[in-house]
Each structure stands twice: as C-alpha cells, then as structure tokens.
Specification:
This protein has a five-stranded parallel sheet with strand order 6-3-2-7-10, with helices on both faces. A three-stranded mixed sheet has the order 5-4-13, with helices on both faces. It has a three-stranded mixed sheet with strand order 11-14-15, covered by helices on one side. The protein has 20 helices and 15 strands. By secondary structure, it is of the alpha/beta class.
C-alpha cells in the first residue's frame, strides 16, 4: 500500500491567515510564500480557513497540512511537496476560533481567494450588497459567515486589544481588487461601528494584486499521477501549468510581509495596468472561449485551440478588440503576451474545462469583458467578437445548449438569469440586471447582442465565428 503523504519539515509559526483555501491559492500564492520563507525566513506559516466545506481540512489534516503541487507541462509532469500550510480551520464549525486566529498579534497578513461572489458586492458598482443574506446576518451577529464579515469582526477585535490591523491581501480576479475589498470592508464596518471604519481607513492596508496561473480542477487521474511520481498517496494535490506571475502593490502595514521579491513576485507601486492586461487578455478570452467553446461541444480550452476557427477567433479578439483598449505595463509587449497566452492555452497537459470557467459568469463578466466593451464604445470601435461571447453567455444561462441538451448553470444569480434568458426578450431582460450591466451599456449593446444571438441560434458557433468581419 502506498504511504500517505506527511509533513517532513518542522512546523512554522503562523504569520498569515488565508480565507478560502482552494486549489488556486495552494498552487500559486502558497508556493511563492513557501519559497520566500525558505529564502529569507520570517515566520510566515499559513493557517488556512475553509469558509464553507470541511473537505480540504479533512484531506490535509492527516498530511500535516502538506500537499503536492503538480506542474503539467508540454514535456511532462513535475511534483513538488508544499509544506507552508500549518493547519486548516472550518469557519462554519468554529467561527470564534477563526476570529481569534485572525486577531493573533503574530498574524500580519490575512489573504483571501473567495472568488468574485465571496465579496458580497455588486459587480457593476463594486459596492457592498447590504441585501446579501450573509451580510444581513453579519450586520446583527458577532460571529460572521461571510469573508467581509470575518475581516471586519477580526479587525474590530484587534482595535479593542490595541493591536495594529493586519494587511488584507486579496488574490482574486477582480479589477482593483484591493480597492474592492477595502470598500466592502469599510461599508460593512461603517454599518456596524463608524469609529471602526474610520480606524480601518487610516490604519489598514489593502494592496491590489494581479495573479496568474492556470489551475484546473484536480481529477482522480491527477491523484493517481502524483502517487506514481512520488510514491506517496496525497488526498489533496493541486495541478497547475508551469507559468506563474504575481504582481503586488508594495503597501503593507508596517512593511511586514514575506520577502516575495526574492522569489520573482513583482512588487510595484500601482498594479492597475498589469491587472487590466491580465483580466481582459487572459480572463476575458478564457470566458469567451468557455461559452462559445462549450456551445460548440469543446470540453476544454486546449480542445478549443485545436480547432483553427477558434484559434483565428482568439487572435482577432486580442488584435482588434482587447489590445487597442489597453495601456501596456512598463516593459511589456502586449502582442508578445498574447502569443504566450495562446501557447499556454494550447498546452495539452492542462485540461481546463470550459464548463468550469463558465461558472459564476454574472460575477466575472463585468471585469473580464464589459470593461473592454465600454472602452470600445467610447472609442467608436466595434467589438463583434466579444458581442458574440456575451450572446453565447445569454444562451448558456438559459440552461439549454444549441444541441438541445441541458446545461447545469452554476451562478449566484442562476434562477434570475434563466428566467431572463427564457423571456420574450432575453437580451433586454439580461441587460436590465443592474448587478451585472451598468445602465449606460444597455442601449448601445442591445441591438448588437440581439444580432449576435440570432447568428448563433440560426447558424451555430462555427459559422458565426467564421462570419466575423
């Protein structure tokens, strides 16, 4: 019998609490932090927090928090034993323990990957959604359930105890993600205690970040591959592409952070241009390929890239619609970046499912696609490729594919999206959803999306792509 993976390094003091210990952070940020700890020390052990499920805790606990990160390159697979996570708590089981951990003076950073919907905000405005069920709970209960609630209640405890706040380091794909989480935290804190909100506004730090690494969902065959490569049974490995990038605004409480610059993290004054480049060029095309590719019967992004029609579509999106709306970060060639993205997408070792990327579209589209469309409208530049992607989304959320087969739509607004998509005017009904679409976009987009949707329904995905100007 294969031996169970276990920790081989001594335990580290906890310096970081991470909310939302999913596959992405374990394959990206945790690896960087482990390398920084090894390079420069500093007591940066991570305490993971699962906000909902006990699964990750139950998988990692017998392994001392350690796990395997499996790089899937075109040339083969490479396994790495990651031991920076010291323990995992489950917030639903013991929220008080999570708050105490966050209030520990040794904790200087609380990082989070809770996905776009975890911020309990309205994507179209970036503001806290006070009607969100979790926020309604957290406004009246000292033991929270939402990520913003845990941040606010833990910061309140630190203030009462005379401690400095922790730095809030968001690692989610949101434009100006540091500004978003700061706004949400201040909105919630202000509703609970205006004095607390004032203290956080002055003393707190919320650096924005840009994260980039493709991390598909772990499959049973990946677990088997890890066992073959390492001779160890790992219940919770993560798989990822070889490429990685992390850009962080260097703005931390008292300057306390791991030596991330020593291990390749780009520490900058302003992450905005990097962030727009990645969200629109990578995430925007990922979502476009997800909806159109799924409707065309392609299971993965690599499958889409094996179809020359999709390859030409991708090149066109970057060249004619997305790059003209961007300002390149210093020293970056956006055309070369597009070429590198295309090669990453085509990596046969990465099976990133279109259905997985298509999840939570109502939360993702504002930052991934609508920003480019807004810039295009302002410049008088048509974006028929992105119009087609949004039209594909409008069909997808109706719950039935072009082949008549049912689609399992996962989205926090799934019921409302389905009702809108099945109404007499699906495009008009979807554009009227203010949580997703700014009102200024509805009038210019409506006729374009109706035409794009008609092209998909009448001719299918391949023909619609081939007919793009």
């Amino acid at each position: 019998m294969t031996q169970r993976l276990t920790r081989t390094e001594p335990a580290l003091p906890i310096g970081i609490v991470h909310l939302g210990l999913g596959a992405f952070f374990r394959a990206h940020g945790a690896v960087y932090i482990a390398e920084a700890q090894a390079a420069s020390g500093g007591d940066w052990g991570i305490l993971g927090v699962s906000l909902q499920s006990a699964t990750t805790r139950d998988q990692l606990a017998p392994q001392g928090g350690s796990y395997t990160a499996l790089a899937l390159g075109p040339e083969g697979q490479t396994a790495r034993h990651v031991q920076i996570v010291q323990n995992v708590l489950v917030a639903k089981e013991d929220p008080a323990a999570v708050l105490e951990a966050m209030a520990d003076p040794a904790v200087r950073i609380v990082s989070l990957t809770v996905t776009e919907k975890g911020y309990c905000h309205e994507p179209a405005t970036g503001r806290l959604n006070p009607d969100h069920p979790d926020i309604r709970h957290d406004l009246t209960h000292p033991l929270p359930v939402s990520a913003p609630g845990f941040l606010v209640r833990a910061l309140a405890m630190r203030r009462v105890r005379g401690l400095a706040p922790f730095t809030v380091l968001t690692c989610d794909n949101l434009p100006q993600n540091g500004h978003v989480v700061r706004r949400v935290v201040l909105d919630l804190a202000g509703r609970i205690d205006p004095g607390l909100a004032d203290w956080i506004a002055v003393e707190g730090r919320f650096p924005s970040t840009m994260v980039d690494r493709i991390v598909p969902a772990t499959k049973p065959e990946d677990i088997a591959a890890v066992a073959r490569l390492t001779g160890m049974q790992d219940a919770a490995p993560v798989v990822h592409e070889p490429f990685r990038q992390w850009v962080i605004e260097d703005d931390f409480v008292a300057g306390a952070r791991p030596d991330l610059g020593a291990v390749g993290v780009e520490m900058v004054c302003d992450v905005t241009e990097f962030e727009h480049m990645k969200l629109r060029m990578l995430n925007g095309t990922h979502s476009s390929l997800a909806y159109l590719g799924y409707l065309a019967g392609h299971e993965t992004i690599a499958d889409c890239l094996s179809d020359p029609v999709f390859g030409r579509y991708l090149d066109r999106l970057w060249r004619d619609e997305i790059i003209p709306a961007l300002t390149a970060p210093p020293g970056t060639d956006l055309s070369a970046y597009a070429g590198a993205l295309k090669a990453r997408y085509a990596n046969p070792g990465i099976r990133h499912r279109t259905w997985q990327i298509a999840m939570d579209g109502s939360q993702k589209l504002p930052q991934r696609i609508l920003g480019t469309l807004t810039a295009g409208i302002a410049a008088g530049r048509p974006c028929p490729g992105l119009d087609l992607a949004l039209a594909a989304w409008s069909i997808y959320v109706g719950g039935t594919g072009l082949d008549g087969q049912p689609i399992e739509v996962r989205d926090p607004l799934a019921d409302r999206l389905r009702a809108a998509a099945l109404s007499g005017d699906p495009i008009g009904a979807l554009l009227a959803m203010a949580e997703v679409f700014p009102s200024a976009l509805a009038a210019p987009l409506a006729p374009r999306l109706r035409a794009a949707r008609a092209a998909l329904l009448q001719n299918g995905v391949t023909a619609a792509l081939e007919q793009l100007p």
